[in-house]
Predict the 3D structure of the following.
Amino acid sequence: MSALPPNINTAKAKLIQRALNEKTGANLTVDGQFGPKSVSALCVYQSKNHLTVTGIYDVATQAYLEPFIAQKYLSLAAYQEAGHRLGVDVATVQTVCQVETSGAGFLNDGRCTILFERHQLYRTLQTVMSQTQINQLVAQYPNLINPDPGGYLGGTQEWDRLNQAEAILQQHGVAPGLAMRSASWGLFQIMGYYYIQAGYRSVEDYVAAMAVSESNQLDAFCNFLEDMNGGAMITALRARDWTTFANQYNGKNQHAQNNYDGRLADSYKQIFG
């Protein structure tokens, strides 16, 4: 007997696995294949919530977990609304999401997906510190403050880098918000220094909203595209001009650095299928 009802497809099974990861610490591979490890995590969740431990995603379990899934993760309806707002098809929105973060705005432990950019913190510090002070910090913390991009560790370790950078700034009397500005956040990896374009009054408000739901992350993406460059990126997306979009979204060196435009084109073909 399957642990999941017959009406639950692979996409929904992935959402259930993601929720179980956060709620139980199971660290499941999110593949939509609800095997023994997923069933075990489901049993742990049922036990923690004083439900009958059946190992089946039954009505009682759904009543507990479904509201959380609906609040935190994106639904097809949300993609459809964003596509309508931007004047593009659903596959186009999903394509950017897939290439940026493989479709997940949160880590297994529930924290927002981020990437800390040490070169952005270096540039930002030039507005509040002397070059001599900055050079000293680069020498001490080259993986956190550096004129060159890099030093990425991925996953939860990006949070470690961010937290370390915030602690260093506090030690030197600098607001930790500068570190938040130097990280990209959520499904669409929009930099913290674009908080106004994303629709927020402060970087702290932006970060707090990104921590709540993928719907907030998607809304920030739409705000960002509408605000930047007179909507030129939206025009490029409507034409599926991936190179023009990628040059504006990820910089003119995007192709040489990571073939971003090519990856967008390939991902769209796979999703649109």
